[in-house]
Structure formats: structure tokens, C-alpha cells
Design goal:
485 residues, binds acetamide, binds zinc ion
Length: 485
């Protein structure tokens, strides 16, 4: 059944790209594109591809390997119309990814994106061999997932009355923003992604970035509110109260529903940008610190350790269900369990530190892999691609042993200033193609000059699919290749 689905997936793509109809069959004949599943490691993402005059053979020991072979054929096809046949160069390819973790994150908290649109993005991720979609589901500006035990999270928390203008001068647009995913819709996304060998990692960001939840359930905060779903961006002092038993119960209940919906081994619980000002003066938080016997440490304040404790309690819940906790690098401000997987976002050094401290680590630095950073988005042409392409996730500052802790790389789009598909795609493409090679390709095979022709072909595919890629890069690369001739 899976082979059939994958074959039909390839056939529909061939039709889309070349206009040629191919039939699928389980009977062997001459001149076929054959998908051959061999005995062996059923989890391996490796595949081999042979193109000769007898046809094309994609072989692997797993369905996912076959799928990546298909992706390579799809990317090698010429884009044509009204032709009877196309040819591919003869080749023998053996291929496997460098990193097991190849992710992209989309923030739907700041702006809601529809289920059909997320599916379109998942298709784009699949064509870039991405295997994790990190779905950032909650923010100060909006709670976007139905939680049955806490209905106000979506009734109140998914709506904000307006949004600050990019001028940031206390001017607001007066336009309400709302939207959330039902649990059924979230399951639909999980299934759609799984059909493309992509795992959806849900993120509920806590204990900071929780204003939408606090507006829904003010008793979860230190002051009790009132709170409002945020209409401006940044970091807010009102966060979950880590001292109340009720708050911990809330977080555990939410995690339970999350783990029912999402089969992902990784569950992301945020942990970034959580100011401690409220906790410092909150009777409940201070009592908790005293009850736990937390002492000030030279490197970690009592409140930072309170956060470590809080996250640790959630981690137990996650671990009890056989899953793994993931968090942003601020969780290193304490002494978290080494089992926790860290997304290093604040800098390249954050990932280096995390790997040295023994955590499985994902490299996602704001400086290189945040495609929504307005300052970096001002960079045009080749440098904008180079910034992504040339960052090696395994820093040479790390010992070979510590490099083993780098499990992969992740790109992120935060949607403060991204409210539609046009901007989303402009930020995503073609830098995603550069990230894809960082994630997939062996270091010694990675070469920017060599990448450019492949990137131009990807841009032709984006155009075919009606995706709004950033065109200044294409112009600059074409000029560059012309000058080199
Ligand atoms: C983050 O960008 N605050 C993870
Ligand atoms: Zn408190």
C-alpha cells in the first residue's frame, strides 16, 4: 500500500512538472521507474538511484528511503509542457542524510495560517527533505490549539483585538486577529505530514509567552490579572505562576492532550524568554522556592532554578509517556536533565554550549537560520543565501565527541510581521533550499558555487507551484553565473 501511495505521488508530480502521464503498476516490465524495497534497516533514510537506458530504479531498505529517492527524481526532472518524453542523464547515486534531524518551525501564534495552507507548506518542506515540522502553537498574541479541558484557551485566547503597526510607535491597525485548530484538524495535519515522512513536533511555549493563556485563565498568573491577549510584540513580564499547584496541573493537563494528538517522540515546551520579575515578588513562587530548598547559586538565581524545577516536572510527564522533551536554549539556565533536547537559537555559541554540556542539540541560530529576522531580511542577493549555506552545524570549536551531540539543524519563521502566504514564502524561499543542503548533504560535498544551478532549478519549481520566492537572489545568482562564464 505504501509503495503504491509513493508511486502515485511520483506519478502525479511527473504529470505536474512535465505534463506526461505515467501509469502505476505492480507488474514488472521494460522502461519503468521501479521502486524497490530491499530487506534491511527499515528506518534508514538512505536510498540509491540508478538511471540507465533500461529505466530508473530507486532502491532502499525503507519506505522513507524510497521517498527521498523519489524526491531526487522529482527535482531532476526538466520542467516541460506538451512533450511526449523527457530524458534524464544516466547516473548512479547513493545518498543518505548527514543529520537525522532536519526541521523547520512555523509560528502560528502571532498569525494564524489555515489548514490547507499548512499542508502546502508541508509539501514544500517535503521537497526539501525536511523530516520535522516544528509547530509553534501558542504565543502571547494567540493560543491556536483546542484543549478540551480548558475551552477558554481558544474562546478567549485565540483572539486579539488588533496588532501594533511595524512602525512600533504605539500605533495599532484596529484589525482583529483570530483562529485556532481543532484537535481533529491538528490530527489531519499530523497525518498529512506523516504521509510525507514528516513528524509534527508540537510546541506549547511555557512558562513565558503565555499571555493568551493568562487572558483565558487569569488565576494561572502571579498577580491574577486582568490580562489581555497581547496586541504588541516582545517579551512580557506576566508569565505562568510557577508557585501554584493549579498552574502545574494546567501544564500537565495540556501536555496530556498534546501527547494524545501528536505521536511525535519530541514534545517542545519552549522555556525561552521568561522574565523572573513577577516570580521575585510573588508569595506563591517564593514559597515554592523555600519549600523546594532552592538556594542562590553563583551562576543561577533562585528564580532560574524554579523554572528548571517547573520544566523538570513537565519533563517527567513527557518521559512517563515515552516521549522526549525539547526546549529553547534558555533552559540551560539551571541544570536541566541531559535527556532534554535543546534548540540553540540565541546564538551559534548557545548550541556549542549545549552540545558541550551533553545535550542532544539542534542548531537554529537567529543569526543564520531565522528567516523572519527583519534586519537579516534586508540582506539581498548572494550574501543572504551564503549566510544560511555556509553555517556548519557542527562547529569546529567542538571536539569530535561533542559534535556527536549535534543532531541537526532547524530554520524558523516567526510571524510577528508575516500575516499572509506571500510574505511567508518570500521569507522561506529559496533560503530553504540552502538550509536543506546544510541539513542533508555531507560537509565535504557542500559547495555554494555548485549549489547555485540547483537553486535556480528549485526556483523554477517554486514558480511552477505558484510560490512567492525572494527573487533578488535569483537575479544576483544569474548575473554571478553569467560573469563566471
Ligand atoms: C525564540 O526565538 N524566542 C525562541
Ligand atoms: Zn507566582
Amino acid at each position: 500500500e505504501k509503495q503504491k501511495k509513493d508511486a502515485e505521488f511520483l506519478a502525479s508530480h511527473i504529470k505536474e512538472v512535465t505534463g506526461i502521464e505515467v501509469k502505476t503498476t505492480d507488474k514488472q516490465a521494460k522502461g519503468q521507474i521501479r521502486l524497490v524495497l530491499n530487506a534491511g534497516d527499515t528506518q534508514s533514510e538512505a536510498y540509491s538511484l540508478v538511471v540507465n537506458k533500461n529505466g530508473i530504479t530507486i532502491s532502499a531498505t525503507s519506505h522513507v528511503g524510497i521517498f527521498y529517492g523519489i524526491q531526487s527524481v522529482m527535482k531532476a526532472l526538466p520542467i516541460t509542457k506538451n512533450v511526449k518524453s523527457v530524458s534524464l542523464p544516466a547516473a548512479e547515486v547513493t545518498d543518505a542524510p548527514r543529520f537525522a534531524y532536519r526541521a523547520f518551525m512555523i509560528d502560528v501564534g502571532r498569525h494564524y495560517f489555515s489548514v490547507p495552507y499548512l499542508k502546502k507548506l508541508i509539501d514544500v518542506f517535503a521537497m526539501h527533505n525536511i523530516n520535522y515540522f516544528h509547530w509553534h502553537l501558542t504565543e502571547d498574541q494567540g493560543w491556536r490549539l483546542e484543549i478540551k479541558k480548558y475551552p477558554m484557551l481558544t474562546q478567549i485566547g485565540s483572539k486579539r483585538k488588533e496588532t501594533i503597526l511595524p512602525t512600533n510607535k504605539n500605533e495599532f491597525d484596529g484589525v482583529p486577529v483570530s483562529g485556532y485548530y481543532t484537535q481533529e484538524e491538528a490530527r489531519e495535519i499530523v497525518k498529512y505530514a506523516a504521509d510525507r515522512y514528516i513528524t509534527v513536533i508540537p510546541e506549547v511555549d511555557m512558562p513565558g509567552h503565555m499571555l493568551a493563556a493568562l487572558a483565558s485563565y487569569p488565576e494561572l498568573g502571579c498577580t491574577g490579572g486582568p490580562y489581555e491577549v497581547a496586541t504588541r510584540f516582545g517579551v512580557f513580564e506576566d508569565v505562568l505562576c510557577a508557585g501554584k499547584a493549579q498552574t502545574l496541573q494546567f501544564a500537565k493537563d495540556v501536555m496530556d492532550e498534546i501527547m494524545d494528538i501528536f505521536p511525535s517522540e519530541y514534545i517542545h515546551i519552549g522555556g525561552d524568554e521568561c522574565p523572573k520579575n513577577r516570580w521575585k515578588v510573588c508569595g506563591n513562587c517564593q514559597k515554592k522556592i523555600a519549600d523546594l530548598g532552592i538556594q542562590e547559586l553563583p551562576k543561577h538565581s533562585k528564580e532560574e532554578q524554579l523554572q528548571t524545577w517547573f520544566m523538570g516536572e513537565i519533563e517527567k510527564q513527557i518521559r512517563n509517556r515515552g516521549r522526549k522533551m525539547m526546549g529553547w536554549d534558555e533552559i540551560l539556565e539551571g541544570t536541566p536533565s541531559k535527556d532534554i533536547t535543546v534548540c540553540g537559537w540565541t546564538s551559534v555559541n548557545a548550541s556549542i554550549r549545549s552540545a558541550r554540556e551533553g545535550h542532544p542539540t539542534i542548531v537554529a541560530p537567529i543569526s543564520n537560520f531565522y528567516f523572519s529576522n527583519p534586519r537579516i531580511n534586508k540582506i539581498e542577493g548572494i550574501p543572504s543565501i551564503q549566510r544560511v549555506y555556509d553555517l556548519d552545524p557542527c562547529s569546529d570549536k567542538l571536539s569530535p565527541a561533542d559534535q556527536q551531540n549535534i543532531i541537526g539543524a532547524e530554520g524558523c519563521i516567526w510571524t510577528e510581521w508575516v500575516k499572509d502566504a506571500e510574505k511567508m514564502e518570500w521569507e522561506l524561499l529559496p533560503r530553504l533550499a540552502a538550509l536543506s543542503e546544510v541539513q542533508w548533504t555531507a560537509k565535504d560535498k557542500r559547495n555554494l558555487e555548485n549549489f547555485f544551478p540547483r537553486m535556480l532549478h528549485m526556483q523554477d519549481l517554486y514558480r511552477l507551484y505558484g510560490l512567492n520566492y525572494k527573487a533578488d537572489i535569483e537575479d544576483a545568482v544569474k548575473k554571478h553565473l553569467e560573469e563566471k562564464k
